[in-house]
Amino acid sequence: MSFCISIKPGIEYLIAKKNQSILDAAKEKKIALPHSCSNGKCAKCKCKVLSGSFEISNYSSNALTEQEKSNNMILTCRTYPLSDMVIQYDNLIDKSSSFKTVGKLISIEKKAVDIIVLKIKIPLGERFLFKPGQYIDFLLDNGRKRSYSIANSPFIDKYLEFHIRHFFGGLFTDQLFGLTNNHLKENDVLRLEGPFGSFILQEQTKNPIIFLASGTGFAPIKSMMEYIIRKNIFSQPIYLYWAARKLSDIYMDDLAKSWESSIRNFKYIPIVIDQTSESMVNIPKYVMQDFKDLSDFQVYACGSNIMIESAKRDFIMKCRLPVNEFYSDAFIST
Fold first, then answer.
1. Coil, strand or helix at 68
2. Are 113 and 143 found together in one domain?
3. Which string of b and e fits 184-203 if b means at least 16 CB within 10 Å?
4. 132 in a structural domain
5. Which residues pair with 79 in a beta bridge?
6. CA 189 → CA 63, 119, 136, 139, 192, distances in Å?
7. 116: part of which helix (H) or strand (E)?
8. CA geometry: angle at 105 spanning 100 and 107, to 5°?
9. Each residue of 181-215: pLDDT tens digit?
10. Over the stretch 87-106, which tens digit does the pLDDT of each residue have?
11. Which residues span the domain enclosing 267?
């Protein structure tokens, strides 16, 4: 038995087999639905059901709240059709605007023991158009992919910059950190696809902005800030909270400080979490100490999944942040 899943906006559709998730069916047909962790935690694959019946199971309540579920929101990675369905995305990835290309690795700069800044040169004559906050996929062997946020401004089109943390045993990061026989080095060629993602700067807003980053979650925020500076588009207050477990992990501290000294209404708050007594889940409290009411704010959170889950919950429930003013991108360790 199989079911037809229509995807709005547009005219895309896919066929899902019995006991197959919507996301797995989309991957089988090579339809680029939004997703990241594929295990019900990050909420990137969230969308609305317009019609049809389904089962949904084994997901984080922070990724999909009961209220969202009652409003027919689902996570496609954990949703299994029981009939034909129609689903809708507000920010569907437009695969026609993405493309595959190759790039030459022009520099690997170590910023901390386990953090590097990677720069990839795009072929001469090509422009890699993207929006600040978006990410690309590195295309690896056997069809595997690894996703990383672009850290430079779209105005810089000679190269793409990525901030990458090493995870021992990681398929891609072990190569980058020289722990495999086929380790990556300067002048190596890498295959890329993108851009993807709906974690993008909302240029129309007049609300004060809070950027909240943990570790290399600073990367897409750097892209957004460089874009803001170049276009001079915001006059409202902007706050950057950058958290890490040790000071060296705030690896571009001087850059953030330079923004504070040169940009009116910008404030930078670095946060070092005590590894022995404090969890990343507590990072939002530093924002809440400064702001009791976030009803007029816009928040961009990027980094560890646990930080994003707690920030979304606490800011909305305790500080009255509007649900639609919380934008996030969770980094999943792979």
1. helix
2. yes
3. beeeeebebbbbbbbbbbee
4. yes
5. 56
6. 36, 12, 15, 11, 10
7. strand 115-121
8. 145
9. 778 889 999 999 988 888 899 999 999 999 999 99
10. 988 766 555 456 788 999 99
11. 209-331
